[in-house]
Design brief:
Elements (H helix, E strand, L loop, with lengths): L1 E9 L2 E8 L6 E10 L2 H7 L5 H7 L7 E9 L9 E4 L2 E2 L4 H10 L13 H6 L5 E2 L12 E4 L3 E3 L12 H12 L11 E5 L3 H13 L4 E6 L2 H4 L7 E4 L9 E6 L5 H12 E9 L11 H7 L2 E4 L5 H13 L1 H10 E7 L2 H12 L5 E6 L2
Parallel strand pairs: 10-11, 10-13, 11-12, 13-14, 14-15, 16-17
Antiparallel strand pairs: 1-2, 3-4, 3-8, 3-17, 4-5, 5-9, 6-7
Helix pairs in contact: 5-6, 5-10, 6-11, 10-11
């Protein structure tokens, strides 16, 4: 079987390449239909990663947020024509593989509990892979995935918000890291960052913990105006001071991560927890004296598991208002039929300060 893969060969230049694919006995062949451009994709497209990283990663097909239609299923679990979300984590085949990986990397002590959990299969490199970073993403005519890396989408979730399930699953996973997945009623959770990720984290907190006060810190009045479902927004560009919080999620990213963490440490209560969710290309300073004095716990989180996708789909099905908010986040849908269309979609997305650009994938 032949497949056309559309790879970024250098910043701002896509090229098609024809490859032979041979699906395994447990693999599913999916034809991508709607793809969402992520900030991580833009860092590759615009050449914002370091020269060493770009040299090591490219050529690479981008995109890890997408849905498609099953063409062939060798596992006999999905009928051809089934609409599915594609899960970008291509995990270690077995937990034994993951344990070997952890042993070889001398991290058994650090991840002793991980080796008995599905997280081991998701985070263990190089056995596990992430599409659009460690291996080709979904900018392909056909995507070959293990049967564990697709999930059926119900009719209640339309095509345009379907690609957002992946990022929403990351937000869901991050929220569950706080307080062992049970934030007490009356607590205050701060979300630092007014972009797409901050929006989805705040939205997950709103849906999962209606008895918890959610406060969003940002720098853009126009973006903060979208957070109509939270208890309070704080515009730090105007010198506004955030309230004290019990828990925090950092979604600033880039150069803003350091400032966000510093502000979190200044207002978080003793024994609070902080989830670091965004990506910075440079080292970020953390004032460890405050961390130690307050007994703060930091949690790194940027991935999600199949179970998170399943739960997010259930939430979207059960909460129409969640679908409405997610639809509002989609601000551009572009039909893509050629390499030129792909470049135009990425260029347009780069100038969108807020919201998601969806490519209707008709290659």
């Amino acid at each position: 079987m032949l497949d056309t893969v559309y790879r970024l060969v250098e910043p701002r230049r896509f090229e098609p390449v024809e490859v032979a694919i041979t699906p395994g006995e447990h693999d599913i062949v999916v034809r991508p239909s709607y793809l969402s451009i992520c900030r991580a994709d833009q860092r590759y497209y615009q050449g914002l990663r370091s020269a060493d990283v770009l040299s090591a990663k490219l050529p690479l097909a981008l995109i890890h947020e997408g849905i498609g239609v099953v063409v062939q299923d060798n596992s006999n679990n999905f009928a051809p024509g089934t609409r599915v979300v594609m899960i970008p984590n291509d995990p270690a085949t077995t937990l034994d593989d993951a344990r070997v990986c952890l042993d070889a990397d001398s991290r058994v002590g650090l991840h002793a509990s991980c080796a008995s959990d599905i997280d081991a299969k998701t985070f263990c490199r190089p056995i596990s892979m992430f599409h659009g970073s460690d291996c080709d993403g979904f900018m392909q005519e056909l995507a070959v995935l293990p049967s564990c890396c697709v999930e059926t989408i119900p009719d209640s979730i339309d095509n345009q918000i379907g690609p957002c399930i992946e990022l929403l699953s990351v937000a869901y996973n991050a929220v569950l890291q706080l307080a062992g997945g049970s934030i007490p009623a009356g607590a205050t959770v701060g979300v630092w960052g007014d972009g797409n990720l901050g929006f989805l984290v705040a939205l997950m907190l709103h849906v999962l913990y209606p008895q918890v006060a959610v406060v969003v810190m940002g720098k853009h009045a126009s973006k903060l105006a979208s957070f109509t479902f939270v208890q309070q927004t704080v515009n730090s560009a105007l010198g506004d001071r955030p309230p004290a919080v019990n828990y925090a999620v950092e979604c600033c990213g880039g150069r803003g991560s350091g400032d966000g963490i510093a502000q979190i440490l200044s207002v978080i209560q003793p024994f609070g927890e902080v989830v670091l969710l965004s990506v910075s290309e440079t080292a970020v300073p953390i004032y460890t004296r405050t961390v130690l004095a307050k007994g703060i716990r930091f949690i790194g989180c940027s991935r999600s598991k199949r179970e998170d996708f399943t739960h997010v789909i259930e939430l979207l099905s059960a909460h129409p208002e969640l679908r409405t908010y997610l639809s509002a986040l989609v601000n551009d849908v572009r039909t893509v039929r050629s390499v030129a269309d792909m470049a135009q979609a990425f260029e347009a997305d780069a100038h969108n300060p807020m919201g998601k650009t969806i490519m209707q994938w008709n290659v």
